[in-house]
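Researcher: We're teaching a course module on how sequence relates to structure. For the next exercise, students receive a sequence and then see the predicted structure as tokens, so they can try to spot secondary structure elements on their own. Here is the exercise chain.
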Amino acid sequence: MSTFVIKNSRIVSRDCILDDYAAVISDGRIENLVAAGEGSLRQMTEYETVDAGGRYLVPGYIDLHMHGAMSHLADWGPDRLSRLCEALPAFGVTGFLPALTPQKDPDLEAGHLKELSAASYSGAAILGFFLEGHYLAMSGSITSIPRDYSPERVRELIAALQPYRVIFGISPEVPGICGLLPIMTQYGAPAFITHTRATAEQTEAATLAGAVHATHFYDVFPYPGDKEPGVRGCGAVEAILASDRTSVDFILDGEHVEPLAVKLALKTLGPDRVCLITDANVNAGMPPGIYPSMGGQEITVAYEGAPARLGPSSQSPGGLNGSGLTMDRAVRNAVSLVGLPLPQAVAMASANPARVLGLDGRKGQIKAGYDADLLLLDEALRVTDTWIAGRPVFSKLKIT
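Model: And here is the predicted structure for the students to work with:
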């Protein structure tokens, strides 16, 4: 289907909803938007059409940080990553950053990364790889392994994942990190601040050196403590909120972060600098139940979209063990938990992450010339149809 028309839709733009519009799609891109009453639309009878039936037409979602879903993890090799790519369009994801954690044997890591980057994938597009754990000072849920913080190691990791872009997760307090950030920037590998107890000064230094974004903000960003009784201290959170250089993202599942904290970030940073992510793990998208964890213990998914929780044991007190969020639910939560209008919630999952990745001239909006990465949502904001580059990859509606 080289050229087709999606008609009778409500197009969600950044600022408003355009009722009863059609989108003309040609060769994988959006060619034009046409109001229902315009004569040019009536002349397009030779094109195949999709009748949206009044559904919302929104840009495809971009997940900046996700490990897995539907029993697949990106870390488990090309076959499982391929199946993950194929599963994600059902949740509205048209592009994403697979998150990879360090291999236990650093000497084998380059080979593992090369294997992932050499494979072919269909479904949700891989927009780069997010390396989480290689430059972190505190573990949170990421296994701590002694790391090589040399410039040569940065270049080796970037080279191993060619031709894909690399995004690094960093803690500003890692020794020498501000010397590595310009090298990452030189190779087009942005750094996301995460898993940090950094001081405000360390965080500000990292943003000046090239860190552009903070991922799963507030989560594993512990409060540094009072400077003295009655004097509140400031740390990474405050430095990022005060910065005019960084953007942030949230796991908006109602448990990893309080909705009030999201409102604060929106008010402080502005609506264009706040994104939604899933940080999803292997059980995301799965029905509620009890599942085995990678450590052999049982984990519980209490309800659809709930984070996985590990029960207490002699080795662990239990607690959160990964996100079960999907991007479509994150958008619904932005509306229902935070009270955002739909255009703003959608932008946090599309236009804003596209901007973080420098793709804002190609992806994340429904505009002429943009990639035709598109979703149809029903009244409950559930995905009914997904196109990637104009190709239907998840569809409940028939083209007529």
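Model: If you want an answer key for the exercise: The two ends are 12 Å apart (CA to CA). The first strand starts at residue 3 and ends at 12.
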